[in-house]
Design goal:
Layout (H helix, E strand, L loop, with lengths): L12 H6 L15 E5 L6 E3 L5 E3 L2 H10 L4 E5 L4 H14 L2 E6 L13 H21 L3 E4 L10 H23 L2 E5 L9 H9 L6 E6 L9 H8 L3 E6 L1 E5 L2 E5 L8 H11 L4 E4 L6 H15 L8
Parallel strand pairs: 1-4, 1-12, 4-5, 5-6, 6-7, 7-8, 8-9, 9-12
Antiparallel strand pairs: 2-3, 10-11
Helix pairs in contact: 2-3, 4-5, 6-7, 7-8
């Protein structure tokens, strides 16, 4: 996480509020989509006049996100009830909408594991995430449903994860009215939009949808193709960019990588997507975050997010 130098940005909570004068107008009217930021992108501290770091509260961090142009935020799973309550209060005080929860335990404890203890820990993590979402008023929890590895075949990952979700997670999601958003990521699973569509459809439930990450498939597919194939299955969207350089995949800011952003925007318009789009990039200071928000605005307007 990036520490902000006071001369570069802020010295106090009062200064955070002052950024509001520079706040860009939201671009929600562009196709109905609203822009959000993942919580890890927001700074956790700043330096005071003596150069010593001062921790920022969730209220201050949320206000900063609002001031630079974001309307919502995605939060990772929180197990501490006191912290969860603090986050709820920060959202209420700032008006920053918590629209989604990113589940935390699906990598460490895959639902596709053959070990019942591992699976139970994963289910417990999802239960916490779903209750977080209900507390905060979010209607989505992001889930990486399975991991293919030397111990878990593709077929087993498919059948095991579906069985656990149907029997042990979906009932709670239905009760709390929270959608489980299945995300494609570098887990060697759901490697094409056709597979993702089939995987989601087999649940036959309005509480299981796709959480499309625009950048995750750039080295084996095209996000505009995924968007057009998944269509109405898409419930939420992550925004990030990568540049593929020989055998390396380099993280890039929005508009500086391999994603064809105007074509992705066109695809979203074709399928009628009008939900949240969330930046999931490295963190930075207010100037950096304001630039990210502006890039998303240009994307929503059908323009290239960045022109060198």
């Amino acid at each position: 996480m990036t520490t902000i130098d006071r001369r570069a940005f802020l010295e106090s909570a009062t200064a955070i509020a002052a950024v509001a004068a520079l706040r860009p107008r939201p671009a929600a009217a562009a196709g109905g989509m609203k822009k959000a930021v993942y919580v890890s992108m927001l700074p956790k501290e700043l330096k005071d006049a003596s150069g010593a770091p001062r921790a920022l509260s969730y209220v201050e961090r949320f206000q900063l996100a609002k001031d630079v142009g974001f309307e919502g935020i995605e939060i990772g799973t929180i197990t501490d009830p006191a912290v969860a309550a603090e986050i709820k209060e920060a959202s209420a005080k700032t008006g920053l909408v918590i629209h989604s929860v990113m589940n935390a335990d699906h990598w460490k404890y895959p639902l596709s594991s053959a070990d019942p203890e591992v699976v139970s820990k994963s289910v417990a993590g999802m239960e916490t995430s779903l209750h977080n979402a209900k507390l905060w008023g979010a209607d989505t929890v992001l889930l990486v449903p399975a991991v293919v590895n030397p111990e878990t075949s593709y077929k087993d990952a498919w059948t095991r994860s579906q069985r656990v979700v149907k029997e042990r997670i979906l009932p709670l999601a239905r009760e709390l009215k929270v959608v489980i958003g299945m995300e494609e990521v570098w887990n060697k699973f759901l490697l094409s939009p056709l597979e993702m569509a089939s995987y989601v459809d087999e649940f036959a439930s309005p509480w299981v949808k796709a959480y499309l990450d625009v950048g995750n498939m750039v080295f084996y597919g095209y996000p505009q193709d995924w968007a057009r194939t998944l269509g109405k299955r898409i419930h939420r969207v992550h925004l990030k960019d990568f540049k593929v350089d020989k055998d390396q995949i380099l993280w890039k800011n929005i508009g500086e990588g391999a994603v064809d952003w105007p074509e992705v925007r066109k695809a979203f318009a074709e399928v009628g997507y009008a939900g949240w789009v969330t930046a999931e990039l490295e963190g930075g200071d207010a100037a950096y975050l304001k630039d990210v928000a502006a890039r998303i605005d240009r994307f929503l307007a059908g323009q290239k997010p960045f022109v060198a």
